Amino acid sequence: MIKIGDTLPAATLMEYVEIEGGGCSIGPNPVDVAKATAGKTIALFALPGAYTPTCSAKHVPGYVEHFDAFKAAGVDEIWCVSVNDAFVMGAWAREQKTAGKVRMLADGSAAFAQATGLTLDLTSKGMGLRSNRYSMLVKDGKVVSLNNEGPGKFEVSDAATLLAQAKG
Description:
alpha+beta, two-stranded antiparallel sheet, globular
């Protein structure tokens, strides 16, 4: 399992972009994790799935709400990563009003989740292999803090916890 001090695994996430511009065509577009984190501070949080109750009611809204405070703490970008396809993440982004605040990144085949070792097997619930719920602060591709939730919990991966670590 990934730990503090480790470099994020080489992976490509996918992002649905609604508006063409800035070199991005309308989605889905590949996001090379190593290139996208180089020289930046990223507040990354991951969750089991789009549209799920805790994720939609608490996890994503907390990061949207604290966007300005994260920027003030030196965070360049906030990423939400989930084992869903880019189209689902794009639709969820519209519903959650994340535009310009949280990048909604798809890990459709769970490759990133598996590479970090932060997986959650929800096969018995018909959802297959998913990402565990966690948050991490990443500086120049390296993990500087990691908050991994226990099964069914939402106690340490929230926006307020990661924001306190970013202010550090």
